[in-house]
Sequence to fold (103 residues):
Amino acid sequence: MNRAEIDSLLAKPEQVVVLDVRRPDELISKGSFPAFLSIQTTDVEKYLAYLPKDRIIVTVSNRAHRAGTGGDLLSGKGYQVARAAGSLDYEDQGGKIARIQPL
Fold:
């Protein structure tokens, strides 16, 4: 997804959930969107019950590869999934990424 497509979805927070599938160290070093759920790709299936089926899910990774894998799994389980997003791609296109501070 490009920045305009992502921004369009993020403008409707009541309709979307951002699911970041990266490792915690990547979230800290690279940042993410202002509000997101964090479930690593390998754990997505284990935590399906925590994901709403009545919202569009935007899966996120650095360059969208792992996000695509997670999105495919969710689509196969009946979830509404937008195309995968790369947070680094979004930032490269001028989008604002939130920096996460470790405790």
User: Anything to note?
Assistant: The domain at 3-92 is CATH 3.40.250.10 (Oxidized Rhodanese; domain 1). The two ends are 31 Å apart (CA to CA). The mean pLDDT is 95. The longest helix spans residues 65-76.
